Amino acid sequence: MAAKTRQENSYKMKTLRFVAAEAFISKQEYAKLSIRNIAHNLYPLLLKACFLNEKEEIITILVENWPLSDFNFSKLLGKTVDCPEDISHWSCQRCLTACLRGLKNYVLNCSPTYSKRLKVVDLTGIRDVQFQSCKCKKTLGRWGRTQLISEICFELLIEMQKSDFNPSIFDVDVDVKCNLFVTEKIYELVVQALLMRCHCPLKIRCVDFRADSLVLRKLFYILRLAEPSSIHKLEIVHNVRLEIYHLEVLFNNITFTQLSSLTLPASTFNVTNYTAEDEAILCTIGEKLSNMVHLTELCLSFSTLTGRLRKLLSPLKTPLKVLELANCSLNQLDMAYLANSLHAEYLEQLDLSGHNIAEVFPSTFFKLLSKASKTLQVLILEECDIGDMNVHVLEMGIVHCLKLKELKFLGNPSTAITLRRLFRVLANLPRLRYIEFPVPKDCYPPDVSYPLDEASLVKYDHQKYETIKQTLCRILRQVAREDILVATPLFGSYDSAIEETGMELGTCLLTSFKDALQSFTASLQKL
Q1: pTM above threshold 0.85
Q2: Where are the transmembrane segments (predicted)?
């Protein structure tokens, strides 16, 4: 009965045109033969209907014969007049593969050149989510899409070497905008695709670039190939051993004129033992960042920046909207700078995890939240030692953040009493939609110590946790705030990139650990 009701609601949302499109593709063999006779303005409608119903063969034929100049995933699969359902988060492996294979066929198709109008394919709007709504439940993530589009470009070049191919292929020129995610495993493939871009009708245009598990020589080389002047977001993460000296070399040799977001790997900065020369390099990097006039997002988590935040951020000409400083060992000087800086009044997302904000700098933290209250949407305070004795600092600071949408404070020693107090405050924030809260301290053994290690993290009273969670949800329901989703992801939020390449990352980390052990053993033997 419930399924029937959902189906009826679904039909009410769709227009007759869309229902007719679904009926058309339901007869697959007939649809495959008739697509070329369909009016051009119906192609977007049919494509979305095919994605919803996972008609891969028809998707390939649709793209192969695409009659329009633009192919934008977020527009085609997002909310439309005919079908309000947004399926741009459907990174369905079967449908996306069919779509990209169709793109290759589009180039090789021997129809007259004048009929080929396609100029831009934009894949950047595809969103990767934890739970796929498609029937196959298989996802083609950012890394997989990078691999597939590189393979298709390479295969296309091989096809063009055949003596019987149509010379009109040389007149086809399609920019494929995409977000690249490169690791050691697909490095050579992506490099080949980028090197041969000038000869390939499908030209990869990188908008966002993510690198993991690459040595620096390869990282710098592929960044040059990826046209850095057009990159908007650069993420260098995890198993990339980038230090301050390497970052200076990178910025001195490669210019990122359009960069709006920068993420650097752990320990890029470690000011603990900086020399005068290192301090000068730090200032140089601050100046280089200031030349990136579009930069509004900076993620420096797990770098030691004690007392040096001003040197990095004060040269910036554009206020930051996203700032991640988790586990950066900030001190009073850093917090005072941040609370009084231009950035504070523009922050939309702030991560101060790993800092004892309520005990060490309560007044500057309160001032920072007061300054950011008109813009702040996401606040992350994981492992900040927020408990019964100091939760009032967070309460007083957050009560004025009326635009806050998400609060994440996992790993804090908060009891059920603390959480109830805090939830009563949070229930009054009109735009709040998501809360990540820790397993209450009451649910753990009395001798547990914070921060929790992985072994201790999972050893809690599950029944007691569920009872407390129900109480917290009841507090929200009493003021009609059922729209707020609450969760306790023990090992952090879902990361599609880690999910997709976790095995390769794990192998690289084990190799690094083995190399470190061998180096340590060799040093001992010399002694």
Answers
A1: yes
A2: none
CA angle 246, 248, 249 (to 5 degrees): 65
- 122 with 145: CB under 8 angstroms? no
Can you tell me the mean pLDDT for 341-349?
Answer: 97
- 358, 360, 477, 362: which is closest to 418 by C-alpha? 358
Q: Work out the angle between the directed axes of helices 462-478 and 416-426 (0-180°, nearest 10).
A: 30
pLDDT band at 8 (very low <50, low <70, confident <90, very high): very low
Measured distance CA(351)–CA(343) in Å, rounded = 14
Run of H or E including 107:
helix 93-108
Tell me the one-letter amino acid at 281: I
The residues with which 120 forms a beta bridge, in sequence order, are 70, 175
Q: What is the mean pLDDT of residues 145-171?
A: 86
- Look at residue 409 and tell me whether its pLDDT is greater than 50: yes
Count CA within 13 A, CB hemisphere, residue 81.
3
In the numeric block, the tokens 């280089």 are attached to: 288
Asked if 83 and 13 count as a contact pair (C-beta separation under 8 A), the reply is yes
Residue 9, pLDDT > 50, answer no
Q: Where does the pLDDT of residue 165 fall: very low under 50, low under 70, confident under 90, or very high at 90 and above?
A: low
Which residues partner with 92 through β-bridges? Answer: 139
Distances (CA, A) of 369 to 60, 147, 232, 304: 51, 42, 28, 23
- Outline where 161-226 has alpha helix (H): 187-195, 216-225
Q: What percent of the chain has pLDDT over 90?
A: 80
Q: Which residues pair with 270 in a beta bridge?
A: 304
Are 247 and 517 spatial neighbours (Cβ–Cβ below 8 Å)? Answer: no
- Domains in the chain with CATH codes: 18-140 (no CATH), 214-510 (3.80.10.10)
